[in-house]
Amino acid sequence: MGIYLDSANPDDARRAQELGFIAGVTTNPKLVAQTGRPGLDVLSELVEIIDGHVFYQLTGATVEARTDEAWAAYKIRPDKVLLKVPSTTENYTMVSRLVPAGIECAMTAIYSPTQAFLAAQVRASFAIPYFGRLKRDVPDAARVIDRMVAAVRGTQTEILAASFKTVEDVIEALAAGIQHLTLPLDLILALGEHDLTRRDISDFGQHRTN
Questions:
Q1: 19 phi and psi, to 5 degrees?
Q2: Which residues have a catalytic role annotated?
Q3: What is the domain count for the chain?
Q4: Nearest to residue 127, comparing CAs of 78, 77, 91?
Q5: Is the pLDDT of residue 210 over 80?
Q6: Which of 11, 103, 132, 190 has the fewest CB atoms nearer than 10 Å to its CB?
């Protein structure tokens, strides 16, 4: 299981790297746009900051454009770049060609078990559902997540959930069997904190002997 930083901000990446338990960084077009820089420039910086994978989402308007973009991103750091590809039938076909060529891919914006199943068929490393949006927009989201987990069990594809707002969401995802999470920096920092822990630390401090 792994925790990924969900950000394209290099400062966030540096802080996350310092934590010592971050598996990598996921980005998306919205996060990249917030930097005001070209996506491949941001990717080039992030791969030098983070020890693990950096996920880069393809945005080309056609399969041909996305394929060219995939190779351009991959060549920046073949050992670190992992491509995020939106889950459509034509993109599964594209990924089925990219993976054998050595490009690691993840299928993103997954909302159904069949999409997760197809991700496994094309040997994507990850299937990425949007946990918060599933809860908001899909009836019986917990059952859908459970079926996604079952759909990839025993394959090389793992579930990496995104779109989290609260610690309670993270707890729900873990209980549902999610294997990996990607979270904004503030939520990662919040995972290790609890008011009762702070209370106990304060109590312990009253009994110091040195």
A1: -65, -30
A2: 84
A3: 1
A4: 91
A5: no
A6: 11
